[in-house]
């Protein structure tokens, strides 16, 4: 792992080297009719001043609230839409973006924009500075600004301790929905990916590491979990533990796949050592 010590404004100096590269931004969404157009406008405003060649691939994951209708009406030339017939999970949606995208770099960001898209240029700048294979947003980066419920912090810490024991990953936070990949990483791993929901982020990182892409950089993020409409505590707590159980199940699935892959194929070093 490389831990950035530069601030976001300093890193912007370095992405001039990739300004003309094509950037594929994958945006999985589910039932975001209330804010999807506003969020897309925000995303475009944060990308277009810095990059001349980009595409935004929005995948509606079986939305039922009118999101698809709104996306069908949008006409921005850099925005493509994929409308899935039923909800299959974020991992499935992002894999469709991996297949559809044509970029030199692939980045995904959650469609709700809880993570502000201004972080995108920071991730790209850090990639150019360190020539990283993967850059991941991290709640545990010392410069991250996180407003997050205590119970979620505890469960996140437990998960990462489990990940540390089971996988050869020098990353302190695998779950943030903001990640950047070189094209070569995506091409090397996308046929091996199958986790559709909570374990997708871990699967991507574990399989990339196994394929030899070792330069993984953690970047700071700003995350305010409380900025949306908060759920009552008696609703939020069962939801947290229900999600935690699903995360645990997916982590086991990834580990079994990862272990089988390690036994089946030798490591091939294709990343930057």
What does this structure look like?
The protein has 273 residues and is α/β, with parallel strands linked by helices. The protein has one domain (2-264): Spore Coat Polysaccharide Biosynthesis Protein SpsA, Chain A, CATH 3.90.550.10. The protein is 41% helix and 18% strand. Strand 3 (54-61), helix 3 (67-73) and strand 4 form a beta-alpha-beta unit. The protein starts with a strand and ends in a 9-residue tail after the last helix.
Keywords:
alpha/beta; 41% helix; 273 residues; Spore Coat Polysaccharide Biosynthesis Protein SpsA, Chain A; 9 helices
**Strand content of the residues, in percent?**
15-25%
Distance between the termini: 12 Å
Indicate the overall shape. globular
Q: H/E series, N to C?
A: EHEHEHEHEHEEHEHHEEH
Query: Please, what is the average pLDDT?
Result: 85
Annotate the secondary structure layout.
Elements: E1 2-3, H1 8-11, E2 23-29, H2 36-47, E3 54-61, H3 67-73, E4 79-84, H4 90-100, E5 105-109, H5 119-130, E6 134-138, E7 145-147, H6 150-166, E8 178-182, H7 183-189, H8 200-210, E9 216-220, E10 222-224, H9 233-264
Parallel strand pairs: 1-9, 2-3, 2-5, 3-4, 6-9, 7-10
Antiparallel strand pairs: 5-8, 6-8
Helix pairs in contact: 6-9, 8-9
